[in-house]
## 1
Amino acid sequence: MDNIIILYNQNKKQEQILHNSNRIDKNLQFKITTKEHRSINFLDLTIHRKENNMDISIYRKATNTDTTIHYLTNHPFEQKIAAFRYYTNRMITLPISQVSRNMEWATIITMAKNNGFPENIIRNLRTKLALKKQKQKPTTKEPNQKWVPFTYFGPAIRRITNLFKGSNIKIAFRTTNTIHKQLSKEPYNIQNPSGIYKLKCNTCNKIYVGQSGRAIDIRYKEHIRYVRTNNPQSAYATYILQNRHEYGLSNNTLQLLKACTKGMRMNCWEAMYIQKFHQKGILITEQQLYELNPLYDCIRELGLLPRNQPTVSGITAQDTH
Ligand SMILES: [Zn+2]
């Protein structure tokens, strides 16, 4: 136990009470706190003195903000819900009055709304935690249980972590999409940008979306070489060959969508653009689709997509034709 509170009648001599309390155990040290406006704060509780009893409610520091991880961020659900799990559990388990419990619940709901959480998720959480409290039994730790961290880059990671369900491996998620990473600029070459590009079919204008960690015009030449040598190495080449359609010059058919460097962020951008063109129905069918992330719609709605960038024609001077 870390903290003990003793409430006493102030009519008694406080030095005497402090002296006696501190004699209970040499490891226990008590300090006197006097009430203000009939109440004192203890840990995350406010204890309010009434005529015949004490009223306990939840105490929030004046500096407390209601910001939690926003519901739409690409974080593991467990981490996003963690704050609300804590608040709700506290509300359920603390011996607070019904009035302050209702107030706390209203606070939690407001907080959830302000952070983009659908209300029913929080309501379900409350039901679940209340049930859990009812049939609470001491948690037994399984022997040989191991915690293993996985990097969370999106919901697809659960296809792997779900394999460990029922085993003695416990999964913890860590994220790499931190504010620091988001704010630090990626260096890239303006002359020969790497990144996400789209490559058009010259016959029907259907689109292939690709990523390249090297200059995209080098990658373009590779696609064309595959087509010329009848090599179905890339989805684009496969498409052109199988449909007997034509590829075009890079300044007509190759367009940079988003300059970035190789890595997780590039994968995300690629998946997002693939989804975008898929929804427009102009993607070649050979293109591999990724899981739909609701965040992509959000990015589009907020207008966060880079405006159509000029084709690389001004950047790549010549073509292999
Ligand atoms: Zn075509």
Note: Residues 77-93 form the longest helix (17 residues).
## 2
Amino acid sequence: MAAYNIYFAAEEASFGMPEINVGLAGGAAMLNTLFGRSKTGISRPQNSSLTEETTMADTTGYRPLTGRAFLVTGAGHGIGLATTKRLLGLGATVGINDLRQNFVDEAVGAVAELGGQAVGIVQDVATRDGMRTAVKALHDHAGRLDGLVNNAAWVRYQTVAEIAPATMSRMLAIGFEAVIWGIQAAAELMTKGAIVNIASIAGLRAAPNTIVYSGIKAGVMGITRAAAVDLGGRGIRVNAIAPSAVPTEGTMRLRNAERDATRIADTPMGRLGTVDDIARAVCFLLSDESEFITGQVLSVDGGTSITTL
Ligand SMILES: NC(=O)c1ccc[n+]([C@@H]2O[C@H](COP(=O)([O-])OP(=O)(O)OC[C@H]3O[C@@H](n4cnc5c(N)ncnc54)[C@H](O)[C@@H]3O)[C@@H](O)[C@H]2O)c1
């Protein structure tokens, strides 16, 4: 059986998948409630339709992350870009990191009207030096660092026989090692704040041909807990999000209606996830709304990881 890709690195990425916009649902409702009232008493409408292009700040002026600075790795596309948009809408300064200049330029252009302040950072963050350079670039620009989202990934699904040193090394470098380098680099510059690692339900449940990917994502969950223990005393929280299947540029080549129908049937909420579902959860874990939550893995998956459907 031939190896096939789930996610594509920048130079191999495909584009053009339509955005999926959905109304308020499930975990989004919980987060909406949590974000519904600011400490200054400003409320946001509870029935607003949240889409990827509609941030809380667009309708309410509620910007609780104003003055704070976050770096999002792999923010040129998909979950990273959606997270960036939402952070900007909440008033933050965001370092938009990706591998290639054109991806970063397109992302910076796409967020121009959202508020906050976007800073493009073209950098391969798969190495210790690369990650430190990216983190420092945002810190130098903003004069502070309040959080990091370890999101970038390069992924191959391969049969047992097909797993090869080159693909394994590349997946480990960006998916596992870079998470640790990111935590190290951020911890050096943060006085307090929050780090969110993007894991996957593949770290909890197995799918065919995912030995390396599942191992990496389970490892990210372990890293998250151990880092939370080491950094909690400094007021730095470390949590992870475990998304289920989310249509993104990186996953589009793998998509087909039959597979999606199976996934939807296995999901209590009855739909696939969206990038904005994940972005809302990341912003919750970066914000003060989650200030006593650390070392946790939050599955954002419409319930698919807890069923035996
Ligand atoms: N989309 C899903 O179904 C899904 C499900 C579970 C978990 N995840 C996880 O969510 C995260 C984002 O996934 P996505 O689907 O949005 O991915 P994506 O492929 O759409 O985007 C990933 C981005 O990371 C960038 N990138 C890759 N290597 C990099 C490097 N060395 N330095 C800097 N940038 C780099 C790519 O250029 C790309 O823009 C990943 O960690 C992935 O494993 C995704």
Note: DSSP finds nine helices and nine strands in the chain.
